[in-house]
Design a protein that fits this description.
By secondary structure, this protein is of the alpha+beta class. 30% of the residues lie in helices and 30% in strands. The N and C termini lie far apart (39 Å). 29% of the residues are buried.
């Protein structure tokens, strides 16, 4: 299948690749940032975005030297699910941020697979030492799931988000290279486990 040739990083259920013209212009990509539920816990959904607007935004991101933007797609049916990026790549201090948007129905492991693949790439190929980010406190469940691949909560930034006339806090989380690779070595050097069922079990266990 043609799309398989463009795989950059591959997980159990998802693949990551450079966005295509069809991804940008003929998919539902721009609608994710107009959808109320998809943008409920992030900074998007404030101003309407057209296909043309989003195309320009994607092109600008792809041309940045400190960012790697990839499309997320389902390996089973090749459906575009979302996008993810390593952002603010700082080679001097050897750190970056990681952002993800999943706008279509996906498996319970999809987000963790994306984080695992990009985190591994950042540590192994970009030679970074730390990945950090933060998210809305309503997404604590997802942050707990990230513990499966070594991420830890570092603290809470209070009254960080104001949306729908409600203040919410930000959960700050990160992972260090040494901790990530220690965990990876315990899994035969496969951070997402050799078997998808093992990953699913670990994710479910993290929520207990």
């Amino acid at each position: 299948m043609e799309i398989e040739k463009d795989i950059f990083l591959k997980g159990h259920t998802i693949g990551l690749r450079v966005p295509t013209e069809d991804d940008m212009l003929k998919s539902r990509w721009h609608t994710w940032y107009n959808d109320y539920e998809t943008t409920r816990y992030n900074s998007h959904g404030v101003y309407p975005v057209s296909v043309e607007d989003e195309y320009k935004i994607i092109q600008e991101i792809l041309n940045k030297n400190d960012t790697i933007l990839l499309a997320i797609y389902d390996l089973k049916n090749n459906k575009l699910l979302g996008n993810a990026s390593l952002q603010n790549i700082n080679h001097f201090n050897r750190r970056c941020n990681l952002s993800i948007t999943i706008g279509e129905p996906a498996s319970i492991s999809a987000g963790i697979e994306v984080f695992g693949l990009l985190t591994e790439h950042a540590f192994m190929r970009l030679n970074l030492e730390r990945i950090e980010d933060g998210t809305h406190d309503a997404l604590l469940k997802f942050v707990k799931m990230l513990s499966v691949i070594g991420y830890e909560i570092e603290g809470i930034s209070k009254r960080f988000f104001l949306k729908d006339n409600v203040w919410s806090s930000k959960i700050n989380f990160s992972v260090l290279k040494d901790d990530f690779f220690k965990l990876r070595s315990e899994r035969d050097n496969k951070i997402l486990f050799s078997d998808h069922n093992d990953l699913r079990k670990a994710i479910i266990s993290s929520l207990k």
